[in-house]
Each structure stands twice: as C-alpha cells, then as structure tokens.
Amino acid sequence: MSMLVLLEHIFLGIVQGLTEFLPISSTGHLVLFRKLFGMQEVGLLFDTMLHFGTLIAVVIVFWPQIRHIVLHPFSRLTKLLVVGTIPTASIGLLFEDYFEEISRTGITIGWEFLATGAILWAVESMRRGERKFDDIRYTDALIIGTLQGAAILPAISRSGLTIAGALMRGIDRADAARFSFLISLPAILGACVLQSAKLAAAPLDTALLIPMLVGTMCAGLAGYIAIRWMLKIVSTGSMKGFAVYVWVLGALILALQFFGW
C-alpha cells in the first residue's frame, strides 16, 4: 500500500463526507476532483463504503429520531419518510443509467453548480416560514422527496434542494434542515443496498481494503461535522455564501470547458 493511495482515499472520504451534507453537491465535487487530478474511478466497493460512512453520520446525529422510527415503525414520521422516498426511488431507478453517463463525463456540472447557487440564493431571499416539524404534511414530504430525486444530476446538491424545498413550503429553518437530513437516510441506505447487490460480480482488491476503511471513517467523521455545521447555519445564518461558492466554481468549470478542458 503506497502513501499516495492512502492519501487519495482519505481525501475522497473527506470530500464525500463534507459535500454530501453541505449544499454544494458531493457527486459534482468528486467528478471535478477526479478530472482535475487525474484520479481513477473510486470503484463500486469504495463508493458503497463512502455512502455507508455518511449513513453512519446521519444515524449518530439523529439517533433519537431513528430510535423512535425503529420502535414505532408505523408512526407519522415513518410514513412521512416513506412518502418522501417514493419519488426519490422512482426517479433514481428510472433514470439511473442515463444520469450515470452524465456523471461520468462531467459535461453538465458547470451549469448544474450555477443552478444550485441560484436555488440557494433565491430561497434565502424568501420570507421565513413558521411551520414546525410536527406540522410537516404528506404533501410536503412528496414535494421534498421529488426534489431529492431531481438531485440525481451530478452537481445539483441534494441537501441544498431538499432544504430549499422545505423552506419554500413554509417550514421553519431548523426543522427544514432536520427533515432534509432525515429524508436522506432511506435514500443513502437504498443506494448502499443497490450497490451492495452489484458487488458480487465486482473484483476485490485486498490491497485497497485498509485505504478504503480509512477513507470510509474519514467520510463518516466529515459527514458528522458537516451535518452539525449545516444545522447551525440553516437555523441561524444564511446559505448565500454557499451560493457564491458554487457560482464561482460553476463559472470556472465552464471557462475551462470552453478552452478545451
């Protein structure tokens, strides 16, 4: 195992963990960094492990709510998450192959970063909602879940789109962030299950097991930090700084593509 390989896996783990929950798109950043630094595809096993790391971060932060779901599988919260997951899963399964190709080429990520920034800026310019977590309706869950499915585009931020959707529905900022992260749980879990089902036919390079495990732990730790940070930012601050960041990033990518990158 070379130090360069280990550092690459640590780097990708941190990027995945941070950008999965910050409103700046994890897939978009992974595509960008692979192209910039000539990194190879991370492989199905490591991709699954990275998702598992971020899944653990959500479970740790929201353990009280998850424990409630486990103990009360027919509770209103469970039903809301099921309703929100249906459109997400439908979009993912129907268009998986098409969007995987878009993600592989990275040809659209510049425009998608710009779109993410526009959404974040627009929603921060709206009047603040007052509806609390207990006031979230099944219609809200359906709309937010549909927006989560639309984030299958590589540089459209899942967390940004779902938080924006909740805010547009008039949900209180802190509760909008909480529901956004909770509804990500079945989506990330589903991705892990689907990818795991494909692993039987995938070759296993045992020399990469330690780098992948370290990268997974980094993804979990970075994800935990990102969730805590985002809960504070959405509750008391503004996401306009993230909007400016992805606008600059999108414009830079489009400029590089224009000059033949």
Q: Could you list some keywords that capture this structure?
A:
single chain, mainly alpha, 77% helix
> Can you count the helices?
11
Mean pLDDT: 90
Rounded to the nearest angstrom, the distance between the terminal CA atoms is 31 Å
Shape: globular
Q: Report the biggest beta sheet as strand number plus sense, adding barrel if it closes.
A: none
Secondary-structure element sequence?
A: HHHHHHHHHHH
Low-confidence stretches: none
Counting helices, strands and paired strands, the structural category is mainly alpha
Strand content: under 5%
Q: In total, how many domains does the architecture comprise?
A: 1
Helix content: over 70%
The overall strand count is 0
Gyration radius over CA: 18 Å
Give your account of this protein's structure:
- Catalyzes the dephosphorylation of undecaprenyl diphosphate (UPP). Confers resistance to bacitracin.
- It is a multi-pass membrane protein.
- Pfam families: BacA.
- The protein is mainly alpha-helical and 261 residues long.
- It has one domain (3-106, 128-240).
- It has helices at 3-21, 26-37, 44-61, 63-71, 76-105, 109-124, 138-150, 158-168, 173-198, 209-236, 240-258.
- The relative contact order is 0.21.
Summarize the structure.
With 261 residues, this protein is mainly α. Helix content is 77%, strand content 0%.
Helices and strands in order:
Blueprint: H1 3-21, H2 26-37, H3 44-61, H4 63-71, H5 76-105, H6 109-124, H7 138-150, H8 158-168, H9 173-198, H10 209-236, H11 240-258
Helix pairs in contact: 1-2, 1-3, 1-10, 3-9, 3-10, 5-7, 5-9, 6-8, 6-11, 7-8, 8-9, 9-10
